[in-house]
Specification:
There is one protein chain. The protein has 271 residues and is an alpha/beta fold. It has 12 helices and 9 strands. The strands form 3 sheets. The protein has a 4-stranded mixed beta sheet, covered by helices on one side. It is globular, with a radius of gyration of 19 Å. The two termini are 22 Å apart.
Length: 271
């Protein structure tokens, strides 16, 4: 997780990035899972969950103070909404008039963030946003520059961000990766436990993939599954990003495999 900020906004408000970096310094993957669980499983509101986390983990009195109006964007899934509220609460503690606005997917919100007209801050995902900007700058067939090495990816991101008119803060320890789930019965019936084994077992191309609208175009979704693991799909079902629609479709057998997140709140129950 890494804060993305409109460059002009960051330059005009020097207290803004340090406040967001305070979130990055405190947020862990375990806590991210717990935050998601509090909303998805315990039915608390994202606003309340975010406020509690900020109160317990960020030294508001130690934040450099700024001023002015800042709108934090958040996508329409649990984790993004929570993180947007965390950012807004910390910015409010740092003296800004901060609010949250729900926006669409990256294809919609990133231009708004770059222009700074509607939103000025967004909780981003390091590898995904790096590759998105890489393809935006160098074309859809650009050689990937994101990797499992956080610092190398941050280094690759910096010139792409500058070219786009964005500034990124410090990455947090908290990580959320795309994961792909099948039901236990489906896996046991085929005798598979990895994506490569699934590709071998379903070489007839009969699999149905479920996920968000942009999945067929994203390198870390359907194209990545096809190119990296050799999976073949008969169809794609437009659902949500690792949410209840995808999970329900899996359980009903409407899809064979679905996009979920490695920080899913359900993992808190397995701790």
């Amino acid at each position: 997780i890494i804060p993305a900020v409109n460059m002009a906004t960051a330059m005009a408000n020097p207290a803004l990035l340090p406040a967001l970096d305070a979130v990055s310094a405190a947020l862990t993957t375990e806590e991210l899972i717990e935050l998601n669980a509090a909303v998805d499983l315990e039915r608390q509101s994202p606003e309340d969950v975010a406020a509690t986390w900020v109160e317990e983990n960020v030294d508001a009195a130690g934040l450099e103070q700024g001023s002015g109006t800042v709108v934090v964007g958040g996508s329409n899934f649990t984790e993004s909404t929570i993180l947007a509220n965390v950012y807004a609460d910390v910015l409010s503690a740092a003296g800004f008039d901060a609010s949250v606005r729900e926006v669409g997917n990256r294809e919609l919100y990133l231009p708004a963030l770059i222009s700074g007209s509607e939103i000025q801050v967004f909780p981003e995902y390091l590898s995904t946003v790096t590759e998105f900007l890489n393809r935006q700058a160098n074309g859809p067939s650009a050689e990937p520059v994101a990797s499992g090495d956080v610092q190398e990816t941050v280094t690759a991101l910096q010139p792409l961000a500058e070219q786009a008119g964005l500034v990124f803060g410090e990455p947090s320890e908290a990580a959320d990766q795309n994961a792909f789930a099948v039901t236990q019965a489906f896996a046991e019936g085929l005798g598979v436990s990895t994506l490569s084994e699934l590709a071998d077992a379903c070489a007839d191309g009969s699999l149905v993939l479920g996920g968000p609208t942009e999945c067929p175009e994203r390198p870390f979704c359907q194209p990545g599954l096809e190119e990296t693991y050799g999976l073949q799909f008969a169809d794609f079902r437009e659902l949500d990003a690792g949410g209840p629609l995808t999970k329900a479709a899996l359980q009903r057998g409407e899809i064979s495999i679905g996009l979920v997140f490695s920080s899913d709140g359900a993992l808190a129950q397995q701790g």
